[in-house]
Design brief:
With 341 residues, this protein is an alpha/beta fold. The chain has 5 helices and 38 strands. A 10-stranded parallel sheet has the order 8-11-14-17-20-25-28-31-34-37, with no helix packed on it. Strand 21 and strand 22 form a beta hairpin. The N and C termini lie far apart (85 Å). 33% of the residues are buried.
């Protein structure tokens, strides 16, 4: 089992060490569940009461929370980021694949870099390029002319269509589809006429895509996902969307076609973003919010109503239907008052 001393972690995180710097840490856990040999963290004040009872060998703390704490600790500005760094160091997640499985189907024109691993029943198409240390999980399919950058990992049953480029050090979770046709049709007297989707998908470096997500190819130009973007499970990115660097989109959010989202945006789960609009840098959108117009100023946007008892909800629904009538009545009263003046 891999272990690291508190001193080594302090050097890694550039953190102040309190207590026994020689103790060994084998894994990470929560304040409540941590045991001897584990490291935990306090990043939210509502869990402060658990600090004095934790069985962890050491705790990541801010300077404020470290005051009066007598146990072993690493003191740093952001304990949660520190926790993420240590969790990466002690990660026990297995590899997606090891070596080239004999059942994998690899086209003779494909180019595989050093250290590539391909799992059982995976299919690698014509002219595909896999960079160094790429890992391809079992059952994954990579279509012709696609490029997967070095260090990128694809879990089981990922489908990468033709002409899709992924950058370096990306992670794509199981069941995701990248490069499927965008939803493009013309209507001729009630009959749908398909528009071939001839663009590709271009994904930057260090992008992480959750399980069951779908990223459509562009109709003519490419769909683009820029560096450092993280997409949660079951996110839909439609054709010709552009997602700016380091933007985060949570689960079950749907982004319609030809949307441009800026850098460093955070979009909550179950949001719906209408097509052909733009969202500027630094926008935060609460979960279950509908965006129907372009957003030109950074800030927090919300639209969903909170849960309430059914009787109150039914009354409010009726009142909502009456808003226009009420508005017209108020306007009429205002005109009458103005005339009397």
């Amino acid at each position: 089992m891999k272990s690291v001393t508190l001193k080594q972690l302090g050097e890694l995180l550039n953190a102040q060490i309190k207590g026994d710097e020689s103790i060994e840490i084998f894994s990470v856990s929560t304040l409540e569940l941590a045991q001897r040999g584990q490291l935990t963290f306090l990043a939210n004040s509502k869990y402060r009461s658990q600090l004095e009872h934790t069985q962890a060998s050491a705790v990541l703390l801010s300077e404020k929370d470290a005051e009066g704490y007598d146990g072993n600790a690493l003191v740093l500005k952001d304990p949660y980021v520190g926790f993420a760094r240590v969790a990466q160091l002690l990660d026990t997640t297995p590899k997606e694949a090891a070596g080239i499985h004999p059942s994998a189907q690899i086209d003779p024109t494909a180019k595989l870099g050093e250290g590539v691993a391909v799992g059982a029943n995976a299919v690698i198409g014509a002219n595909v390029i896999l960079g160094e240390n790429v890992q391809i999980g079992p059952g994954t399919v990579i279509g012709q002319d696609s490029i997967i950058g070095s260090g990128t990992r694809l879990w089981a049953n990922v489908t990468i269509y033709h002409d899709v480029h992924l950058g370096v050090d990306c992670i794509v979770q199981a069941g995701t589809v990248i490069g499927s046709d965008g939803f493009g049709y013309a209507n001729e007297r009630g009959q749908w006429v398909k528009i071939p989707q001839t663009g590709g998908v271009r994904i930057g470096n260090r992008v992480e895509i959750g399980a069951g997500a779908t990223i459509d190819r562009g109709a003519l130009a490419h769909t683009e996902i820029h560096d450092g973007v993280i997409l949660d499970n079951q996110v839909q990115i439609a054709h010709n969307d552009i997602i700016g660097a380091n933007t985060c989109i949570a689960g079950c959010t749907v982004v319609a076609g030809s949307v441009t989202i800026g850098k460093h945006c955070i979009i909550g789960g179950n949001c719906a973003i209408s097509g052909h609009l733009s969202i500027c840098d630094g926008v935060h959108i609460s979960g279950s919010t509908n965006i129907t117009n372009s957003v030109k100023q950074p800030g927090l946007l919300s639209s969903a109503t909170v849960a309430m008892d059914n009787l109150t909800w039914r009354k409010n629904t009726v009142r909502f239907r009456q808003l226009d009538e009420l508005f017209q009545r108020v306007k009429k009263i205002e005109r009458t008052i103005k005339t009397d003046e």
